[in-house]
Structures are given as structure tokens and as C-alpha cells.
Protein 1
Amino acid sequence: MGRRGEHSLAEIKAMALNTAIEIITQQGLAQLSARKVAKQMGYTVGTLYLVFKNFHDLVSQANAMTLDELYRHSLNYSQHAIENKVLQISLGYLQYALDNPNRWRAIFEYQMPEQEQWIPEYAEKVQKLFALVESLLVVQCPSLPSDSVHLTAHALWSGVHGICVLALTGKLQGIELEQVPDLVSLLVNNCLLGLQQQD
Amino acid sequence: MGRRGEHSLAEIKAMALNTAIEIITQQGLAQLSARKVAKQMGYTVGTLYLVFKNFHDLVSQANAMTLDELYRHSLNYSQHAIENKVLQISLGYLQYALDNPNRWRAIFEYQMPEQEQWIPEYAEKVQKLFALVESLLVVQCPSLPSDSVHLTAHALWSGVHGICVLALTGKLQGIELEQVPDLVSLLVNNCLLGLQQQD
DNA sequence: ATCAAAAACTGAACAGTGTTTATTTAATTA
DNA sequence: TAATTAAATAAACACTGTTCAGTTTTTGAT
């Protein structure tokens, strides 16, 4: 039927990303498909390939948006804390995951096709989160050498991430859901305690 | 062509599981398909459905076998350690993941179809790993109350798991691969140090 | 205003996926 | 040897991502 001109390509791209996020949120990443996105937008599949290189591109950009939200949410938690900001950002990270399980899992369970690359924004945004934790840690443990801060930030953050992963995939069967934040507190606080003892 | 009688159904099932693990090991979970398994065995797809309920069933049982190997490997590491067994089992867990990335990722990145259940063995084996860590922790921290041991074991183990996840998915960009075991040591040792300080 | 060119959009095709089922073939039993 | 049972297949179904030849509409120039 040809050009309808109702939406610009930029608008179509935005619509597609929002629709994809909607489907991920409601039905999970596994239920996302190109045709489903297109149909829900009122277009056909081919149109998506005018604004995305391929399906991987669509998913990556949708996940990048989630990663942004996740970053802002975590940052917000740390900024509203007056002490132990490292713990607070960790709890903020967990809370976003618990509140948006499907979107959170989509970020970390998406299997990148062989031979494809991450979109640049994706790697940047992951890096930004680590950097944020590192900056909070350096304030909280001023006597720690910068090499140690770097390693510790990654260890701590990976640990918090691991708790989120296992909690969201139902693999923490011996732990009640309301105890999951306690796991984060336990890990972060004891690790920090151990660090300060070394000084 | 009908019954060839070359293999019993039990043998066919074992062949399928071994073939699936082979494909996962070499090409990753994303490249696994029912037809590929069947073809590599010298059978057709339909035959697989004589011994598996569905594809989910096949993947689950293949992953359960990996989970067993992972458990034995981790147990072995802890048994050969004379002190700090909690750290050693953690490093053993990490090493298995680094040595068998595709099999390890298959366990944790497999998206269970909506409305399907884990096979019972699967949940049991995950539980067994947590229980093992908990039993080592209780020896290493005898003065810790049993409630705390339970929580701490899960927090610690999730932490170690998180490091494995991010390392294998290439999200620890600020860290060299040979430093990853250091991350595990840092997390585990500092957390244990913090715990002992609380006593 | 008319016509050509460019851009937007579709629909159908392709190879692949998991799954089901009628059918064929071989081994077992009577 | 004939009837029965079990093993295995081939083909179909609905779905997936991806491509591309056409069709339709808008735009730009005469």
C-alpha cells in the first residue's frame, strides 16, 4: 500500500522500541517477536527493517533503554542516602530488578547471536554502573588503594548482581522473597567490614 | 523405515543427551536444536519424542547432567583443601565455569518455556550446592548462629555466582580474565572476615 | 498541473524452529 | 507362516527472523 506518512521513520523506531518494551514487560523476552511488535504497531514486519538492522538491533536498543532506567533508579537510591551509599545503591539495584523482573531479565538473559556485537551504548552503560559503584566506594573507604577499590567495586557489584539473578530465576529456594534484601545487606556490609579491618 | 533395533530406547535417550551436551559444549545453547541432535545421532526428529516429553525436557536433562558435573567438581575442590574450604569451593565453581563456558551458561541462561516446570532433579541439584556451601561455612564459622549461616551461605554463593555470570558474559570489561579468581577471593575472604569480626 | 523520481510500505517467499500424526517397516509372538 | 506390536520415519503445522520484488504514496522539477 506504500507510504502512509502517518509517522516518520524516527517515530516508527520509537514506537517499535516502546512496543517491544511493553511486550517484554508483560510477557517476557521469550514472547517477543518481530511480527508481534509490528502487528501491535499497526505495521508489517518489513517496516521494522527500515529502522533496525535486525532483530538483535531492536532487542539491544530496547535493553539499552532499560539499562538507562536501571542506572537512573540506582543513582537515585544512592543520592538519597546519607550514609552507606554503597549498600543503598545495591538495594536500589535489587529493587528495580524485583519490580521489573521481565525487563531486568531481558537485559541479562538475552543471548546475543554468534558473530554479532554489542551496540556501543550497551557496553558503556554497564561500565557506567560499575564506575558509579566505584566512586561511592572510594568515598566510603578513603584509605583503600585505588587498585583495591577497582577490584572491590567489581567484586561487590557482581555479588549483588548474583543475588538478583538467582532471586529472579527462582533459584534461591531456601530463602523467602522478603529476605532477599537481607542477603544483599549481609554481603555488602560484611565485605565492607572485612575491608576496613585490613587497614 | 521402522524399527532398526540397533539401540534400545534407553540407549537412544543417552545418545541424545550426550549429543546435546556435545553441541552445547562446542556451539553453545543457542545453536542446539532438536533436528540437529537427531541428525547427529543418525535418527530423525520424531524419534526424540519417543524418549523426551518435549525439547524443554531434553535441555533440562542435559543441564542436569552438567549440574552434576559442576557439583562433583566443586566438591572435589573443597575436599582437597585443608583450610578455607569455602574459598576453595568458590574457586572450584568459578574454574568449572571458565573451563566449560557454554555448558555452564546453558544451565543458567536457558529460558524455561512459560507454564513449564523445572524437572525435579534440577531443583534438587541446585539445593545440594547451597547445602554443601552451608556445611562448609558452619565448620569455618562455628560461632555463627545457624540462621545466619543459612543466609550467609546463600549470600556468599550468590555473590560467587554473580562473578561467574558477569565474567562469562563479558560484562567485566574493567577486569582482566586472570584477575577474576582474585575477585572471588576478595569477595569471599572479606565477607568471612567481616563475619568473624561480628562475633 | 503533470510527470518522474524517490521514499514508504507491503506481501510473499525462504530456511529454520518445536511438535504432532499417519504411515511404513522391522522384530516379536502365536 | 501370519498377526501383532513396537520402532522409526516423513510430512505437515504454525511459528520464527530475514529478504526483496512490487505497489502505493509523497515529493520535487518541469
Note: Residues 1-5, 9, 43-47, 50 of chain B lie near DNA strand D (CB under 10 Å from a C1').
Protein 2
Amino acid sequence: MFSQASEYALRALTELARCEPEKWVLTGELAELLELPVHYLGKVLQNLARKGILESQRGRQGGFRLAAAAEEITVFDVVRELDDVRALETCVMGEASCSDETACPLHSLWKGIRDRFVKSLQSTTLKDLAAFQEQRPGSGRLSAVHPRLPQFRPAKPRRGSQGT
Amino acid sequence: MFSQASEYALRALTELARCEPEKWVLTGELAELLELPVHYLGKVLQNLARKGILESQRGRQGGFRLAAAAEEITVFDVVRELDDVRALETCVMGEASCSDETACPLHSLWKGIRDRFVKSLQSTTLKDLAAFQEQRPGSGRLSAVHPRLPQFRPAKPRRGSQGT
DNA sequence: TGTAAACAAGATAAGCATATCCTAATATCT
DNA sequence: AGATATTAGGATATGCTTATCTTGTTTACA
């Protein structure tokens, strides 16, 4: 239905909605938890940041986070930025002139279904998605992946590779 | 929603359902009436013939025609052959394990809408599409395009190009 | 029997989505 | 200030859909 980019985005945003709103989350953490290609997910997140749905922070302790409260971002908001949602509005049969007045044979059918779908997407927020995932058995959690690493430094040699 | 190929197919098949069932119709006629790229439409029709929805006849007086009665071919039958309809069954959020038991946050919403859509496609036949078009003002008709050309031969020179 | 008409099939190409990698910019920590 | 971690952005590659063109194959008709 949606592009793979939108699917990745929805899954990542759902996870972001599950942790503390202020926390910066790494692309790598999200990719690992959701088992998605890191670099491609990075592109998607960059895109969402440009569109104002995410905020990004470069450098150490950086990452991505929601630009607004989870209950204020709808599924439709997300999909609209990544997919061409206008495609849903176009004629199912690809006719150039198909409107309420001059309808193609499938127009009313498609319009009914599409409108119901869009309304649902508009009334479903990231908070809803997150809440659903909370109650789902076996759904991993972000903080569980990297539970605030205690900044361990293994006395790493600077550059002289000592083999073992 | 559908691929462009499916859209082209639906429009072409609707026209085929509007003329006498036995008549062979040319790709060129369909393309001209529907204003579609001839060669590409040809590929789509070839495909449908291979899948058993159309019959094709080579040579003079050849063309394409429906392989079954228009009331026995559903929109779903057509789309299924050209698009990967299984994509409708897969999770909207792209999750690997999303079923009735282990549902993603959008599963029940999507399932309801998708099922209603598929059922509608399965209960709409080419006859229905054709009947709708009949009553539509300004919808061209195939027989009107080439009303059985009277086999006119303009005494064409064999190979010597005579300029004007 | 030959020729023209028409679909069949293959090669080719553009455009987009997906995916990866590399370098640059930037923020933090020491 | 310098080293390091992290996103940003550009270049590149692959595969699918759409589209066109060319050539082959089949059929009907003269």
C-alpha cells in the first residue's frame, strides 16, 4: 500500500513515540531494533527532519527525536510527506476526467473506500501506534537495546594495531 | 492505486465488453479511442491473452477479444493478473509478522478496508463497467472509430518513393 | 502462392524507488 | 584545542515499471 520508505518511517516513529520525548535516538539503534537497513533508514529520517516531523542533532549525543508531541502527529502527516498521497485521489482506472460529476465506473466505490481510509489515517496518531505496541507481547523497546551505556572505554590503543 | 498497466487493461477491457463478443478488435483501435500508447497497450493485451483473459488472433482480420462472457470476468480477475495483489494482504507497516493473532497497530483498520475493497472488486464485472460507460455522456464507442472500413485501396505505388 | 495485415517477442532506454558507501559538517567530550 | 561521534548530503548501483522500436511469425485474402 504505502512505499517502503513510509513503512520504515511509521515503524521508526512509533518507537520514537515510545521513549521520553526529549531523548535523542540514534539511527543505528532504530535500525537494529527494527531490523532495517541503516543507511536507508537514515535517509528516510533525514527526509522527515527536513519536512519538520523530526528534529535532528548532529555530533556526539546527537540523534533524532519527534518535533512535536506524539499525540499531535498523525499517520497521515507522515505518509503525506513521503508518498504522493494525491495518487489516492486520482481515478482508479486512470481516466483523465473522472470527478463526482463525470465519474468512471469505479469512481463512487473507490471514493467511499478511500475517504474512509484517509479519515482513519488522519485520526490515528503516533501516540495510538505507540500505545498499541506497548501492549503487544514481545515487542522490543528502544531503551532495552542500549540501556544507557556506562561510557565504557577499553583502553583502546590509539593507532598501532597490535594484532590480538 | 493500481499499476498503470492495470488501469490501461481495465479501460481496454471495458471497451471490449461493449462490442459484440465475437468481434476481433485491433490494438490500434483501442489505443486511439482511449488515447493510450499503442505499443505499450499491445504488451498489456498480450499479457492478458497469455493469462487467459483475452484471446488473440494473428494475421489479417485478427485482433483481441474477451475469452469469456463479460459478466464472468471481474475487475479482480484482471488486476490479479497484472499487479501483485498479495501486496494488499501484506502488513501496511511492512512488519514481517503481522497477522490476526500478532497484529500491527494498523492491522485491523487496514484489514477491514482492504477486505471491503477486494470484495467489491470481486463482485464487479466487466459487464458492470461496460453498462456504466453506456450511460455516460460523451463516451466514445469502438465501432464509431473505424465503422468497418470499406477496404479502400489508394493504388499505392510498390516501393518507388515519389516524393509528394 | 504471394503479399499485406496483425499479433508475438526481443532489445533497448528512461525514470523512479530502494539501497549502499563515502565524504563533509557539526556537536560534544576530554 | 583536538579527538570522536553522529547526522547531512552527494555519488553510485540495482531492479522494476513504463515505454518505444524493430524484427519475427501467423493468418487471411487476392
Note: The interface with chain B takes residues 1-2, 4, 7-8, 10-11, 14, 75, 87-88, 91-95, 102, 104-106, 109-110, 113, 116-117, 120, 124, 128-129, 132-133, 136-138 of chain A (CB under 8 Å).
Protein 3
Amino acid sequence: MPELPEVFVVSKFLKKEAKGQTIEDIVVRYSKMMDESMRKKLIGQTINDIETHGKYLIFKLTDYDLISHLRMEGKYYVSDPDVINKHDHVIFYLTDKVLKYNDVRKFGTFDLREKSQTYKIPPLSKLAKEPFEIDLDTFYAAIKKRRSPIKTILLNQGIIAGIGNIYADEILFQAKIHPLKIANTLTKKQAQTIIASSIDILTRAIKKGGTTIFSFKSDEEVGWFTQDLMVHTKANEPCKICQTKIGKIKVNGRSTYFCSHCQRM
DNA sequence: CCCGTGCCCTGGCGGC
DNA sequence: TGCCGCCAGGGCACGG
């Protein structure tokens, strides 16, 4: 499931494939994904650039910004125009190629904004800064007034942007903090450690994804692979640091993996 | 404002 | 072999 590193890698792919191309036509195969008024506005627009903010992709067009969220399984790929795959929902006919948005679960979203409104209304108006830019005092102030588990806080895009369920577990493991630790009991030092671990893990994941970018296809995963993970999906396996069995619990309905010895309340 | 729950979706898998 | 129920999860609406 795409988190900040995967979205960043996708944006690199899109810059390579779609930057400078004009949208000549669009075929929408699942109407809830994109309505007709959006489709009409997009036709004739040139893709001048692709930016990212957290898990969002932002296509910078001639007159609008197109905000794309991949959610769990959304992906973009370029392929033979004659081949339509089962979960291709939006097909962009560009100047000299066909770009497809494929999404098995249909959870992905498209939002079109006037350029002046992009960051003024949802979804981007509510988005916090990414770990790379976030200010420690701001982050710590947000934490101090929350009574939820820290895991829940890391998934809150309005507090810190770009972290999803997989990297949240990995970040807390590296920071040696228990996922159920209540946010407002953290010290400023621990908040700082969380930010540092976030930057470290996201950066390493981006580098990892970057190695597969040139062979990117719809059915290839980007980002971290299972052997890079320390705790996520490792239930009952020995912790790579202390050999304690990795535990699995639910935090706010999300599967959460942790080491009860390395990560303290 | 904060916090928890249910919903959107499909495919894969365990159980029988 | 097939069917059923559950699980995966990001963001949002909605209730307390």
C-alpha cells in the first residue's frame, strides 16, 4: 500500500512518462472514480509537472491541479492502448502514449482544483507537513494534547503527513517506543526521535524504491520488501535485535506489529 | 476540538 | 471443489 516513499517513486515515474504531455482524451470505466465535468475540464490540459505532498500526487496542469490519491492499491502504468486490464478505471490518452490508472479496490480518488484553491480546501488543506519539513515544537505541541496511542497519531495525516500502517510500525520499532504509548505521555526527546526515525526510514525506503523505478510496471511493488521490515507482518517471528517474539495487536482497527522487549511504554 | 467506529471495495485465504 | 466469512487498510462521515 503506497505510503510517502511509494508515492514519491510513482511521481518520478510519472515525471518521466507524462511530463510535458497533453491529455487528448480520457475514458472513465468506473464512473464513481471521475465524473463527467472533471473529465471535460481535463481534456486539453498539459501536464507541466507532478508534485507530491504526503501520500498525494498533484498533477500540475495548464489551468488546474489534479490531486490523485492511490489509497491501498492504486497504480499508474503505461501500456499498449489496445490492452485493457480488469481494474483499469481511468485511461488517459496523452500526446504519444496511454497512461492507465488501475485500482483493484476502487478506493483511490481524484480531485480537481483551481490552482488558487489547491491548498485551501480539502483534502490538502488539512494536511500537515512531512517528517522532512515538520518543526519539532509544532509536532510536540500536537502530541501533547492527544490521548490516543502514538501509533494512531502517526497515521493522522493532519499531524504528520506521509506515514501509513507499515512504516508507522517500523518507525516506532526504530524509535523504541511502544505503539500503545499514549501520545501526551511522550517526552520532547522521544518526539524528536520519532521524527528522526521517520526521516531515516522514509529516506531509505525511497532509495530502495528508486532502484526499481526504471522497470516500473503495474504489477511490480515499489518501496520496501518484506526482508527489509523489522516488525511489520512478522508476527511470532523472533525480533531481529533481541529474539523476543514479535507481537500483533489491533490499534484503532489497524494491524500493529511490535517487539514488547525493545519497545517500552 | 477530540476520539472511536463503520463504511467504501475486491481478492485471497482459512475452514468446513 | 466450492462456498462462506473474514481480513487487508486511508480517509472521511458521523456520533458521543
Note: Chain A has two domains: 4-125, 136-259.
Protein 4
Amino acid sequence: MKKSKAYRSEAAAAIHETATGLFEAGVIDKRTMREFDDSCLTPIHEFTPGEIRALREREQVSQTVFAHHLNISKDSISQWERGEKRPAGPSLKLLSLIERKGLASIA
Amino acid sequence: MKKSKAYRSEAAAAIHETATGLFEAGVIDKRTMREFDDSCLTPIHEFTPGEIRALREREQVSQTVFAHHLNISKDSISQWERGEKRPAGPSLKLLSLIERKGLASIA
DNA sequence: GACAAGTATAGTACAAAGTTCTACAATTAG
DNA sequence: CTAATTGTAGAACTTTGTACTATACTTGTC
């Protein structure tokens, strides 16, 4: 996965709707629209074991409950926090969402 | 992953906050709280290749763009839709979120 | 028309994620 | 004291997801 520019999510959402309208009206082309689309995604980055634990503790849940929210096993959370394994693709997306918008946003 | 009861997400969110308050006030115990927590999660189910494609087309995006949103490769989306591989744990969670709340909800 | 770019299929090979199982502490609840 | 919860630890195992090709259809542009 490559880079992705950072935008404030709420502002981005609003602007995005406007852009969608412009696209449908034929004001901006497909290419611009797609690249714009990408730039609106929540920035995704790697997480250190400590960051994962801090994130979970911020949300005040046990490894088991945290795992349920991510739809993975509790063992995996333990492995992430101990640095035995590192979360990948879709898991990083979910962690980024939690970091930005809180655990409730993916409930 | 086990079962999970279905609740309307908005109503559930409100009720959940109330329950959290009750827990903090000591009215309900930890166990009840945790089980309640689980029941509030968006129900997760398997997706057939056709359902995945239908979901993507409902959101009007190409495989590439869809992949970016899920933070996976475009090849994986293609494989899902052709039934060559099946989305697992965290991927299913994201698909379920999109199905319930739309692609924008995980932007 | 020719040419490039975007979209999707198809096949291979591979690393690593995530699962499941077990056992063992430490803490807390009843 | 007993039982349940929480987290660590290590193992073997399955399969996702990646990366790399090549091909074909469509679309837009010069």
C-alpha cells in the first residue's frame, strides 16, 4: 500500500459530496475524481505493539472484546501487542478507523 | 467467530451509552456489560462472490478503488468476486460495515 | 485509424497473517 | 477458597493476501 494524503474527515466528506456533484455534472473528469477519491481515505500507517495496546486501552476494552470488534481471535490481539505478529491490510484499515473515529465508529 | 444478535445501529448506540452509564454507576455488572457490548456489534456474515460484486457495484466503484478503501490489493477483490478466494476475519468486518453503512462510513 | 489508459480475468508462486490448541500466571469476583 | 477473567507463551496448521505476469475488452484522445 502506498501513501495517502491526510484530510480532516468531516471537511473531506462534505467536499467530496460537492466533487461528486461536479463529476456527475461533467465539470471534472473521471481521472480527477478517482484521484480525489483516494485522497479522501483515512490515512493508514503501521502500528507499533505499544501503539496498539495504547489504542485498546484508550477504548477501555479487554483483548477479547477488542478482538470481537475487529472480527479476529483474541490470540491475534495478544500477538500484535507482543510484537509477535504485525497486523496487515484490512486489519490496519480497521485500526486506523478506530484511532481516528473511535471504537464505536466500527460497531 | 460466533453469532451476534442484530440491533438497529443508531438505536443500539444510544442504548449502549445508557448501559455504559449504568455500568459505571454499578447498577449492572461487568459480565452483563461485556455480553451486551457484543450484542451491539454489526452482524457479520459470509459473502458469496456475487454479493461482493453487487455490493461494489452498488457503491459504483471499480475493483481498484474498492481495494483502496479496504486497504488490500486489487487482485484480491478480483479473486473474491470470482470465488477463487474468500474474504476472512477483518475483511468480512469491513464488508459488513460497507453493506450496513455504505462505503463512505469507512472512508 | 492508431495509440494509450482503465477495467477485469487468469494463473503462478510465496510470505506471512490469522486460527486453533494447549498450558500457565496474575488478578479479581463471589 | 473457588471460580472466572485477563493476558502471556509457544506450537503447528490453513489460507489469505501479495506480487508478477499476460491477455482482452472498452474508452477516450491525437
Note: DSSP finds six helices and no strands in chain A.
